[in-house]
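Team,

Forwarding the record for the chain on the shared tracking sheet. I've put the sequence and predicted structure together so nobody has to dig through attachments.
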Amino acid sequence: MVAESTRRLDALAKVTGRARYAADLQFPNMVHVKVLYSPHPHARIRRIDASQAREIPGVLAVLADRDLPGIPSREKERPILAQDRVRYLGDGVAITVAEDEMTAREALERIIVEYDVLPAVFDPEEALQPGAPELHPGGNQVCHFKVRHGDPETGFAAADVILERTYHTHRVYHAALEPEAAVAVPEADGSVTIYCPTKSPFNLRRIVAEALARPLNQVRVVEATIGGSFGGKDYDMAVVAGRVALAALATGRPARLVVTREESLKESTKRHPYVLHYKVGAKKDGTLVAMTVRGITDAGAYASKTPLVAWRSTVEAAGPYVIPHVHTDIVAAFTNNMPSDALRGFGSPQVNLAVELLMDELAGELGLDPLELRLKNGYREGSEAVTGQVLRDVSLEECLNRVTAATGWQQKRAAYAHQEGTRRRGIGLACSFRGSCFGAGGEGLDAAGAMINVERDGSINVASGICEVGQGSRTAFARIIGEILGVDPARIHFSPVDSARVVDSGPTVASRGTVVGGHAVRLAAEQVRRVMAGVAAELLSVPEREVEFAGGFVSSRRQPERRIAFPELANTCLSRGLTLYGYGWYKIPDLPWDREQGQGEAYFSYVYAASVAEVEVDLETGKVEVLNYTAAHDVGNALNPAAVAGQIAGGGAMGIGYALLESAEPHQGELSNLNFDNYLLPTALDTGTITPLIIEHRDPLGPLGARGLGEPATQIVAPAIINAICQAIGRRLYDLPAGLEQVLAAVRKQEGGREDV
């Protein structure tokens, strides 16, 4: 195991302010771009008259969809500029290009657009009804995924207790401090280079190239420092990049667009809201026998990653529990709301909330401790998942035992069962399993590439197709290389992702960076190691199998005094004409999958976690204070323990916001809280004490045994908090967020004293 923490490679530049974000970039003769948005959630564009706008001094161009030489977008994909119809209030209709941003903004007011307003639909269930306004050809259903495991009716017939409940989750915003921004530079050869913060540079390149009718190698995407992503900066960045690229090629000058916070909240994607209907059956002793799940989610106006998100929800909806009979159906629908897309958790937080709240309520019905119910039914080594997959390397039980022991679960659970006064405490539990990477539901290749090059002085250059979105992947990759080649990670330099210099490695999503990207880096480092080991064996006069790389030296394992410094060995290899360039390409294992039945190997590996939240609720105001949040995560191998702890703490803070404060719910397609003054985010005063518990069971399929953590850190925060609130107030909650009004309304429903939970 790698036990020691190391400083993040990008930390110094960020904390000193030297890191350059897209909005910091300046190029000579640069022009500025602003966007005209639709005033209607659904309308046909009849005419655009930009003649008055073009007359303003300093205005260089007003461009619309007709100025895009290529396809506006693939079917049901969000366009760079609306073609003939707008489908939500954030659709871009035209852009102005001017010498300065103020003039570009002024020109927006002079553009005249005539619309034929169309009927709109904002509720996904209504959108699927016959006669509903159709957003795209073929109807409003985006996708429908299923799991068919056993026969639930047989299971329910044998159940002693049956519960049916409905849960609602809501939209939230990625809320990165850096809004979307991009700069495009036209090159002498007719190509265009785009500098932007993106987690999906290759998908962005594809979208822009198609819109501009250019081959992929004529659109170069260079990663700028990313000021937060959390699942964002994907399709949102693609449309921004397409707009600046269009402006740059139209004017022959570098073009810049920095989206304001209000524009970002209006236009950008949000986490999918869900309505989830659960039915569960159990024996008196707590054995789960059957479950059905019916869910519907709002995709918004365009598809984005909705199919991938909904598929993951379907696979994980029944939770990490052995249940012989399960049927799950998750349907996604188009509406005239803003598009939904990936947000940290990628379809897991919604179903995690529902199933974990259901387990607590079921435990109450059966007179069991919520921990007892989870331990009785939770996955163990060799358990069969509801997809029919036999699970290996399962650590759920250890996660549950570690987190409950660390928090005094039994004592506090008993102590909080009987309280007086208007301020009452509660303690809540949640657990999860999560599939690594895209899995069998992924569309296209789930793979990544990396290149490393050892210089004569022993320093190392690395280029990876995985973006650094704040998760610390490059530091983790440096630890992998350091372990294989025995060098200090500080001697390793990473180039920004550059689509002209690294291979298409897909988007940096689904907690796949450490696993897929880490394997690619490992393979590249091992390729270099083999070359260097052969030369070292000759120089040290030892068999190659005895060569060891550690501490900046290459030595004999049996005779450590016989050694050569790594830089000296590198110079020797290069002097002999040997290349110390390594290339690694890693693809996840093939996964057999029956899409119609939802059976097979959904993911090649899983991660496990459990969390406990302790809260205090003011019964007079409904205010919830999070006192403590503790989470145990099996990370396989903590490549950088300090970064792991930071991920757990950051994920905890984000989950607290999801549970209690944040909401981006539009009314008739329009969002009212368009800035951080009324979009409520948790501060350090709202998160209490967050305690990470790091569990390490090496994953045989992970690089050096490591597992992904970025999204699991967030997905079980909300259910632990809501379960804690429920114990404190003696009532069950079923919807997010659990704000003041919601909690107070639940408290006031109490009649005849405290209700057991």
